[in-house]
Amino acid sequence: MLKINNLYAHYGNIEALHGVSLEVGNKDIVALIGSNGAGKTTLLRAISSLVTRNGEICYNGENIEKQSPRYIAKAGLLHVPEGRHVFPGLTVQQNLEVGSVSWRGIKNASVAEDLERVFSLFPRLEERRKQYAWSLSGGEQQMLAIGRAIMGRPKLLMLDEPSMGLAPKVIDELFVKILEINSMGVPILLVEQNALLAMEVSQKVYILEGGRIVLQGDSKDIINDARVKEAYLGKL
Ligand code: ATP
């Protein structure tokens, strides 16, 4: 459903992606791993039209390469950025309402129903619904950022480093939820520093280095690749 072919991305004169090709199928969790500065965030930003890009980005057969960030989000490709970016001065519920699907022009959208769906996925957010987002823990803020995207009824969810800065136990809890979201029928493109975790939860993995895909395949195979073990898993 999402098919990227020969994608380039630029920051001014700096070329950060040099011809990346990647696919995310309808039911997949696809992991994108690679070291710092490899271009993982840039790839998600390129899909969301937040950075200058050229190449083919086909979503359900339509090339969206020339489309605006708004068009892409309206099509249901929703991006949870690195660092969460919740609105600190709004309550949990207000943050969620900001993500409501209503702006996507979907008829008969019910904010209450969508809130209920998010709260059943993340009961902690319901307990904290009147609390300001600034007062939440890092894990709760990450849940809120993901919950806000769920309010928009994603057709594809792009998660940038959801585990960043979180304790191992919190990361485990969060990834159970990410798997649950996927089992609800939402394909996920997952950028992760934690390569082991990313490969454990995904079906397919792409390894990006220096703005190029250097290895790709089924996660269950790549996780056992000697080069990958040495380069990405030895550090864990
Ligand atoms: P990290 O894990 O550290 O977030 P990453 O794989 O997500 O790394 P990117 O943030 O996409 O990598 O960066 C890819 C390249 O683009 C790097 O060389 C980086 O320095 C460069 N870059 C990123 N953002 C900008 C920017 N706003 N202006 C100029 N260069 C940038």
TrEMBL record:
PROSITE patterns: ABC_TRANSPORTER_1, ABC_TRANSPORTER_2
Membrane spanning stretches: none
Keywords attached to this entry: Amino-acid transport, ATP-binding, Nucleotide-binding, Transport
Signal peptide from the UniProt entry: none
Pfam families to which the protein is assigned, alphabetical: ABC_tran (PF00005)
Highest taxon in the source lineage: Bacteria
Example of a GO MF term: ATP binding
InterPro entries xref list: AAA+_ATPase (IPR003593), ABC_transporter-like_ATP-bd (IPR003439), ABC_transporter-like_CS (IPR017871), BCAA_Transport_ATP-bd_LivF (IPR052156), P-loop_NTPase (IPR027417)
Residue intervals of the ABC transporter domain: 2-235
A GO biological-process term: L-amino acid transport
SUPFAM superfamilies membership: P-loop containing nucleoside triphosphate hydrolases (SSF52540)
Family, similarity comment: Belongs to the ABC transporter superfamily.
Name of protein: ABC transporter ATP-binding protein
Source organism (scientific name): Anaerosporomusa subterranea
Taxonomic classification: Bacteria, Bacillati, Bacillota, Negativicutes, Acetonemataceae
